[in-house]
Amino acid sequence: VQLVVSGGGLVQAGGSLRLSCAASERTFSTYAMGWFRQAPGKEREFVAAIRWSGGNTSYADSVKGRFTISRDNAKNTVYLQMNSLKPEDAAVYYCAAATRRPLVGDTITRPQAYDSWGQGTQVIVSS
């Protein structure tokens, strides 16, 4: 499945952005979709994820209460609503899908658990 990401850009600290990740085709075996980010010189880190069946969500501690992941089944799209953005949120954000196996426990936070990735979108937060 191909994932197309949109919605990045420049925002002032305290502002909001919404990222979208659209799947090119409907897949009945999508177990979870997640958002990750990577800042310059840092490893890719988990941001948020949602299990397709049931809609259970997981968040990194650093974004809890500020970011919300959601999905639109009809549009095969996952969103990441980012509020109260901080300069430390600046990074390239990636969308990923796990289509080969269910993700159990905290494996949902691991990039290696995902088999499809979208292109990154830059988020810049000015202070």
Task: Provide a brief overview of the structure.
The protein is mainly beta and 127 residues long.
Q: Considering DSSP H and I runs of 4 or more, what fraction of the residues is helical?
A: under 10%
Q: How much β-strand is present in the residues?
A: over 45%
Characterize the overall form: globular
Major sheet details = 7 strands, mixed
Low-confidence runs of at least 5 consecutive residues: none
Q: Topology as H/E string?
A: EEEEEEEEEEE
Radius of gyration: 14 Å
| Oligomeric grouping of the chains | single chain
DSSP strand tally? 11
By secondary-structure content and strand pairing, the structural class works out as mainly beta
Distance between the termini: 37 Å
Helix count from the secondary structure assignment = 0
Mean pLDDT: 93
